[in-house]
Amino acid sequence: MSRTRLVVLSRRGRSSLPAAYWRRLEAAADVCLVQRDDAPARDQAVTLLRDADLVGSTNLCLPRMDGALLDALPRLRGIVLYATGYDHLDVPDLRRRGVGLCVMPDYATIAVSEHALALLLSLATRLHLAHDRSRAVVRVDTSLRGVELAGRTLGIVGVGRIGGRLAGLARGVGLRVVGHDIDRAAEALAAARGVEMTGLDDLLRRSDAVALTASHVLGRPAVIGRRELALMRPGGHLVNVGRPDLVDTAAAVAALRAGDLRGYAVDDVVVDAARDGDLLDEGRLLQTGHSAWWRDEVLERGAWMWGDRLLGAVLGHPLDAVTWPEPAAPHLTRPLDDMVRA
Ligand SMILES: NC(=O)c1ccc[n+]([C@@H]2O[C@H](COP(=O)([O-])OP(=O)(O)OC[C@H]3O[C@@H](n4cnc5c(N)ncnc54)[C@H](O)[C@@H]3O)[C@@H](O)[C@H]2O)c1
To answer: Which of 113, 142, 227, 280 is the most buried (most CB within 10 A)?
Structure first.
């Protein structure tokens, strides 16, 4: 039987994984490391991945895994993503083709929940704007007037790992918290942890600020659009550390311009600075360019977790598989960490 061929795409090259993982991977498979700053275009991707059984990639380096590319990669049987969210991938199509997908839940939960609180605090305190004003990036007469959060209500949409942790952080600054989740089990867990759970419309009506920490599925409509924005309290804040597609950006911009929404903070870049630069200058739109997870501890934890998942896929023990072609080996009884250190 030929050895498994693994292609790893990453900006950080060999420093993406602890050395022990490279040793184990290279002992078990033919490993090709491709260090690059972006995702390869289709033709280049075909050349790089044509012979791959498994692909490990960060989101930054992953090519568009659409039908045309997957058609050109008949050997491919698994993708090991350095990411929690996978809404850019068509999971049913991967499943149909017998291509597995492993992800990394929880590696950035602490960082992203802290980032969500930081975004909310920034909108409330106008911290980002005060900084811009002190550097004369915006006019000196720009208003820095903000609001206090204590005693207000935060509605958390998607009370999973990140949302659940955010609930605790928010209570720490005196916010009341209500939550909403479409998953019964997540709802029950959040309720057991003391979060008052309710329907989306009720949450929107009751909340002074809404935080989106929900996962997103490719092709699913935005959770917050014009109708939902209209249900929010006038002058509310909206924070989105999930995916930009959770919000209808045009509707959010319109609500900001109408003064219905006081501030929108999103961990991505969603507006054209040439067209909506005034909202950025006024600090009502805050964009942090998918930086929530970029923390020392997350990078260290992520390297170990990615190594586990790459090695697991190579050895036939997929970890945190969203989907994986049968037959997968029986579930591991010994953590891969131990095997690497052994
Ligand atoms: N900004 C970043 O750097 C960063 C980093 C990691 C994760 N994320 C994003 O955060 C998301 C959440 O991560 P997590 O670890 O908390 O995931 P999770 O699966 O633990 O929680 C997500 C929750 O959202 C719920 N949900 C999905 N759609 C919903 C909807 N329409 N309404 C209400 N609830 C809904 C799910 O049922 C689930 O309970 C990820 O999917 C990813 O997109 C962002």
So the answer is: 113
